[in-house]
Write a structure and sequence with these properties.
By secondary structure, the protein is an alpha+beta fold. The chain has one domain. Helix content is about 30%, strand content about 35%. It is built from 3 helices and 5 strands. The two termini are about 20 Å apart.
Length: about 90
């Protein structure tokens, strides 16, 4: 099972910048300007690992992430849709 701590580790340790344009554009459209992926923008589960809760009704920004999976002994990457939230959309638990 993919735990909140797994989500946080994945977000903080990723080297990919491919989602940055979508993240910046999505949050700028919401009127947010202090956008720092991997610092104040994370997935729901990553916020949980940081002791924060996304407020009910908040709408995040959808991004496409690529997961590396092993199937039949071979590694491949598959696309997955994720939603990220800004810290201003969360409360401490």
């Amino acid at each position: 099972m993919y735990t909140p701590q797994d989500a946080l580790n994945s977000a903080k340790n990723s080297e990919s910048l491919s989602n940055y344009p979508a993240i910046f554009a999505g949050f700028a459209a919401k009127g947010l300007i202090d956008i720092r992926p991997r610092e104040n923008v994370f997935t729901y589960k990553a916020w949980q690992a940081l002791g924060r809760q996304v407020r009910k009704g908040e709408q995040g920004v959808s991004v496409c992430t690529w997961l590396t999976v092993t199937k039949d002994g071979q590694q491949t990457t598959i696309p997955r849709k994720s939603t990220v939230f800004h810290i201003s959309q969360t409360d401490s638990q």
